[in-house]
Amino acid sequence: MKLNKRLLGRLTAASLSLFVISGCTFISDPVSQMRVPQLSADKASLMTAINSSLKPLDATLIRPANDDDSSIFTEDLDKDGIMETLVFYQTKNEAVVIHGMILEKHEDTWVKKLVFDGDGTMLDSVDLRDVTGDGKLDIVTGYSRGEEKGMVVYSYSGGELEEILTKPYTKYILDDLNEDGIADITVVYFKRNEFATITTYQYNDSFKVLDELDDLDPYFDNYYNIVSGKVAENKEGIVLDSAVDSRSAYTTIVVMENNKLRVAIPGDVRTFKDRKIVSEDIDLDGIIEIGMLEPPSGWEYFDPETIPYFNSYYKWDGKDGLTFSTQLYNDPSDRFTINFSPEWHENVTVDTKSVQDKSLKFITLDTGETVAEVSFFSPAEWDRVKNSGWKLLGRDLDKMIGYRGELEQNTIGGEDGRVKSSIERKGIDE
Prior knowledge:
Structural class: mainly beta
Organism: Paenibacillus borealis
Strand content: 35-45%
Protein name: VCBS repeat-containing protein
Shape: globular
Number of strands: 27
Radius of gyration: 26 Å
Low-confidence stretches: 1-39, 408-421
Helix content: under 10%
Mean pLDDT: 86
Order of helices and strands: HHEEEEEEEEEEEEEEEEEEEEEEEEHEEE
């Protein structure tokens, strides 16, 4: 494919690299992953103490769903100079199936201090954070029993454990939402067609309600994504992606100002999309963007099922509007993603002769020149074209997915200098 110099100059604004994501998943229990020959004497002593303290004998250590790294948490929880280790384990054929255990290290020996019961059948989350402002680490846990979830905050001191907050939740957020320098806990609680509430708690001798939103619309299917962080320059907030049904969705932004929660961007026509898109910091600038589904120019009157939609991401402007951030094409089957430079917004479309799962041609609106192509080939077809400028993105069942274009690497967004790729392979076999 020949490209003129003017087009090549513009292509340097975009980026290219290929990532292979393995489709293999290995699952094993947390104890078996800690091989004794690789343990230091201290870790071996800890594992011996843990295993000898598990009751009954068939009890097994469990890992919270929000932590892929470890089932063993070792910290000086109460800041008294003595290290503690927290573990959770599961028992069978008992009324209570989840238990927590805390051990303390005295000289070279780990000693069991206490065991406590968890209120649920699954351990969803464990966070060790100072949420009371006393400089000590509190234990924040999420338990579930079917669709019901319950959060418990424990305070550990002097060998004793105390429950200081217990709340039902859909999602809890540990943050400083009112930005006063003191940690707070925000609980999102939702029951379909009944209620959707957001409550922020802060500790002052006990946990007290800072504010609550109790008039949010509950008439949707579920929250498929809730994330907190910067939602505008120097502004903390919560972004809630709501699934209206099995496909469509909308997004709401909630912030706190003067200790009062308010809806900054309501879930209305501005944030409605016909396909679920996860809100995230897509351009790595530290601010969460809202994803929107937009038809390429020229496709407005086609059958919606055939439209190769763009995912366009927008930031809250800090007032009552949204501003464009970046745009990408995400394959509906999540096999690859094409990222376009923000400067190309409203000047790149998809040729209307394109057909999903067959051939996609991305062109400029002003000149009609091709900037990227993705095509699906049979193995025999691939053998004929693989040496004519096509690069292999991967295999999907009996098809070879090829890419052809001249997009160059360009480091954009994020202080860590990570490359934002123009082409990313996702979950397909080589």
